[in-house]
Write a structure and sequence with these properties.
The protein is built from four helices and seven strands. The longest helix is centred in the middle third of the chain and has 16 residues. The protein has one domain: Ribonuclease H-like superfamily/Ribonuclease H (Nucleotidyltransferase, domain 5, 2-Layer Sandwich), CATH 3.30.420.10. The chain is α/β, with parallel strands linked by helices and about 140 residues long. A five-stranded mixed beta sheet has the order 3-2-1-4-7, sandwiched between helices. Strands 5-6 form a two-stranded antiparallel sheet.
Length: about 140
Amino acid sequence: MPEFVIYTDGACDPNPGPGGWSAVFLVDGVKKKVLSGGEKPTTNNRMELTAALKALENLPDDASATIFTDSQYLKLGITEWLPNWVKRGWKRPGGKLANEDLWKALHRQTMRVKVKWSWLRGHAGTSLNELADREARKAIPR
């Protein structure tokens, strides 16, 4: 099975407002495709989660992938906070969980594929992260 590397990003203008998301796929080190889409109204956080979800939904069962994100919300949510939300019945200590629908969908996907999550600083010159950002911005409905 090939190794997937995916760069994801979400954007909103303004936030909240119309938003776009993008996922840039590399398969065995070669850029293969870019997925993108948009919604209105939405938030930047929803677009970050949607980008990762759409990327995972496009992977075959039992695939292995590394997802690069510049969203601390996504990275910390999926790697640190999510296990406790599941234990508490999808609740935060303070009550309602924002974006619960997307977190649940992401959780289902992470049980289907093997994912390593990696955070990188946005707008720091990483070419494929910059490409994901441009594609997410282009996908914002006007």
